[in-house]
Write the structure tokens for this entry.
Amino acid sequence: MRLSRRLALTAFAAVSGAIPVKVRALIPMRIGVIGAGWLGGTVGRRWVEAGHEVMFSSRHPDELLAMTRPLGPRASVGTPRQAAEFGSVLLFAVPYSALPQLGRALQDAIRGKIVLDACNPGPSGEAELTRECEVNGVAATSVKYLPGTRLVRAFSAVDATSVAASGIRGSTLGVPIAGDDDEAIQTAAQLVRDAGCEPVVVGKLADARSFQRGGPGFRANTTAAKLRSVLGLPDGP
């Protein structure tokens, strides 16, 4: 696709409310979305619109075709294993109780890859797993069940509706992220921008407690400046 046509399509999508008006320069990536529900589907659609190749996955991939067909050739569907093998970067957006089993089943396919972990244990989830997250922190627990990955907590503290609305009416959503791998953090931050939001780097994985369930940053759904204030972080650039 020539640049002029890409810009025209981006402008049309922006006017129709699909993506923010600002055109982002980016390096296209191959991204596997493990769990294409409310959040995974919303973030993944934003990435496709920004120019990335995204494979959306579920146990029943054919059920995702109605969502992906309008997105064009950069969007595809597959099983979780196919998505894990497809992506150089992965987004996990599944019920937290599914994480241990997925980590075992996909261990060879996800090893060494940057993983954006958007999963949250819920009060109605498995009691033992929820207690483990409360004691050790969600980030540390995710690292345990997704071993060998370059994990970043990202998109875990925001609602899909807030992601979908970000940048369209002049207000950009701040998305807290945390990780121990500097390159993975940089990649996650760029993908937050490509989803039409603004990254707020909170710190290392241990610092992700501040935006897990019960923390001040969880479901704040506000601008980056206000989020930094809520989390007690210095002002950003």
Notes: The mean pLDDT is 89.
